[in-house]
Write a structure and sequence with these properties.
Strand 1, helix 5 and strand 2 form a beta-alpha-beta unit. It contains 16 helices and 9 strands. The chain is globular, with a radius of gyration of 26 Å. By secondary structure, the chain is an alpha/beta fold. It folds into 3 domains: 135 residues, no CATH class; 106 residues, 3-Layer(aba) Sandwich (Rossmann fold); 192 residues, no CATH class. It comes from Vibrio eleionomae. This is TIGR03013 family PEP-CTERM/XrtA system glycosyltransferase. InterPro entries: Bact_transf, EPS_sugar_tfrase, Sugar_tfrase_EpsB_2. Keywords: Membrane, Transferase, Transmembrane, Transmembrane helix.
Length: 464
Amino acid sequence: MNSTLFNGIKPSSVIVIFTDLIAIFCTYFLCNYLLSHYLSPYADIDQKNQWLQTIVFAITISIFILSVGLYNVKLRETFTGIVIRIFACVIFSYLIDKLVYWVINANQPHLYAEYFSAIAFIALVFTRYLLSKTSYQKLGEKNVLVLGAGERAKIIEQYMRRKTDRIGLNFVGFVEMLGDSPDGIKFEKKLDLDEPLETFAIKNHIREIVVACDERRNVLPNESLAACKRLGITITNIVDFFEHETGQVAVTQVYPSWIIYGPSHYYSHLHKALDWTFNTLISLAIFSIVWPFMLVAIIAIKLEDGLTAPVLYSQIRVGLDGKLFSIYKFRSMSIDAEKDGAKWAQTQDPRVTKVGHVLRKYRIDELPQLFNVIRGDMGFVGPRPERPQFTKEFELDIPYYNQRYSVRPGLTGWAQLKYPYGSSKQDAIEKLKYDLYYIKYRGFLFDLLILLRTTEVILFGKGR
């Protein structure tokens, strides 16, 4: 699996992980001190049990912090939002900690877990606050030089314009090259080198050169690029650079060779059988947990629309290899929502019922798709399946759109985590960039990361 999957794990992310662990283990010593001297001075504290508490808490809270995106240095969130996420992580870690102690039947001093969780929350918020007052995000920052200032280079200006998009990167400048489109970058620093490329790179401590010129033939300084490579400077084309920094594919910039020489998506019958078994077992396990929410959803729909109102809604979607199948959802729109034909769902869609707004926000409307997973129509992770009324148009107008059919569609996906909502052809293009990235790098660990990060979508009602 390519390391670009974990493009959020940068040196600054390592600092955050390290400070979180320090905060948790400092909590252990502080909590024991308070218990033994003030809160429960006569309690018989079993150090072995308390170390178990710390280790379980450290592991579980690290997983939860990862799942809500707090180890992603490019997370766009206010400090208040970060505090809320930490609080949710602490609550879940506390519950798992209590469950572990109940299962192993181990003793704890009275209220030890409660004290530990409260102190850990304060410590984690405090360390995050201290980090926010430092320039830790500049740790490991590299100087980048871009060869090109035309159409291909402009995608950096368009899609990496925010500060958070450029964490770890310092763009020294964009070198104007022969053949570059005049309708290129507008706001970035343009350079006209008057010295050999390798000399400029050494003087400016360049660590990566991105080739983004519109015309390559007889334009690129190949000898200078080779010299830079011998000096240990990374040479990257714009498509690969854009992929590993943004987690998406520049659809308008890739050539057919990207598909032809990319990874194969053919799987043996054994692999497909194991994949179905794994997804089915997970579906049954999840159903055993979420069935009360499904029951509440059914009752709520009936109360709002009447006892005779349908609870489930099915649509034809396009799946693996372009085959059609019926997808199932809890009905979140009015019964006659599509009496005039298929329409895009909007962010504030007037057709959505009051109950439907809640079901959609927390993804409860998607739970009946567990049946689609068991039936083999879908997996847990993959591109979201689209309606054939729209895909016919997309296949004609959007390059490489039919590549989505090379993998099984999913309940959740990389595009659902990275792009908030899709209600137009332009949104379909933007989501395709993430879907193609997932298709290229898909694997067990990537799927696991997406499943963990889906927790953020469910808890905080983000994405679709």
